[in-house]
Write a structure and sequence with these properties.
Blueprint: E1 3-6, E2 9-12, H1 23-27, E3 30-38, E4 41-42, H2 45-58, H3 67-80, E5 86-93, E6 111-118, H4 123-128, E7 130-136, H5 151-162, E8 167-172, E9 175-179, E10 183-188, E11 191-193, H6 205-217, E12 221-222, E13 236-241, E14 245-252, E15 255-256, H7 264-278
Helix pairs in contact: 6-7
The chain binds N-(5'-phosphopyridoxyl)-D-alanine (PDD).
């Protein structure tokens, strides 16, 4: 996986020179995406590229390539690395300028980088489920922007890791938002609940695919927030993201969900999701 994207060129890792004054490096001023690759094929690449441009738009960052050009560059990068199953990470920063909170002139070009990682699907997690903790959502109020400034998220994920858990379910004043690097969905009495796509969550592409899967399998969806105290009453809980796909939660803060086993709706959602992957 030695080939990386550096602006519009595919080069080897040692050919990349990131400036000390890159605004991504100094200010976390940039946006990113992660796209899953199954057996060399992209999953929902268009949706991720659209979201990258939407995130960039929200911070007035101009990406100096068309969406089609970026798509082709990422495709070529995956091919050049002969990636089978894994993911491609790509980010755009506001470019290189003397450190100043104020944005530089538009003549300063954004810096694009991308790299690929080979990693198998976490089948054991899909099968057995994962454990999570609950934490206060300490992040900023524009979680709809997929910003590279991830310190809050990293602090929360580290807490989960130290507790021997996979993720942290986050809440603001008791209202469950999402997880540190994924969305959270809950099923109760045959209805799927998840926080609406507001500024308080990232509207996950996987979340959107799961909502489509729910429709297909006849599981009604309510994009309504639930509260921390509701968690214990939920029949099934799911963590979703590009790399986590449909991961069942079997324990929250040491308390079993659904008796510690994966529930039937989650299994059906996994099957519907798998069908989309197999159709690639
Ligand atoms: N994380 N919410 C947050 C805060 C995220 O960071 C992510 C993705 C998601 C799920 O989005 P999607 O389904 O589009 O991957 C929700 C990526 C995978 C990451 O940072 O590695």
């Amino acid at each position: 996986m030695n080939y990386v994207l550096y602006n519009d060129q595919i080069v080897t890792r040692d050919e990349v020179v990131i400036s000390q004054e890159d605004r991504g490096y100094q200010l976390g001023d940039g946006v990113y995406e992660v796209v899953k690759v199954y057996d060399g094929k992209f999953f929902t690449a268009k949706e991720h590229i659209d979201r990258l441009y939407a995130s960039a738009d929200k911070i007035d960052l101009v990406i100096p390539y068309t969406k089609d050009v970026l798509h082709k560059l990422l495709h070529d990068l995956v091919e050049k690395n002969e990636l089978g199953t894994g993911h491609v990470y790509f980010q755009v920063t506001r470019g290189v300028a003397p450190r100043n909170h104020i944005y530089p002139e538009p003549s300063v070009e954004a810096v694009l980088t991308a790299n690929v990682t080979e990693n198998p699907r976490p089948m054991a997690n899909f099968e057995n489920g994962v454990r999570v903790i609950v934490q206060e959502d300490i992040r900023w109020l524009r979680c709809d922007i997929k910003s590279i400034s991830l310190l809050g998220a990293a602090m929360l994920k580290q807490k989960a890791h130290q507790a021997g858990c996979y993720e942290a379910i986050l809440h603001r004043d008791g209202v469950v938002t999402e997880c540190s690097s994924s969305n959270v969905l809950a099923i109760k009495d045959g209805v799927l609940y998840t926080h609406p796509a507001t500024n308080l969550i990232l509207n996950g592409i996987t979340r959107q695919v799961i909502l489509a899967c729910a429709d297909e399998i006849g599981l009604p969806v309510k994009e309504e927030a639930f509260r921390v105290e509701d968690i214990a009453t939920m029949d099934e809980l799911i963590v979703s993201s590009t790399t986590s796909e449909v991961t069942p939660i079997v324990e929250v803060d040491g308390v079993a969900v659904n008796g510690g086993t994966v529930g039937p709706w989650t299994r059906k959602l996994q099957q519907a999701f798998n069908a989309k992957v197999e159709a690639l």
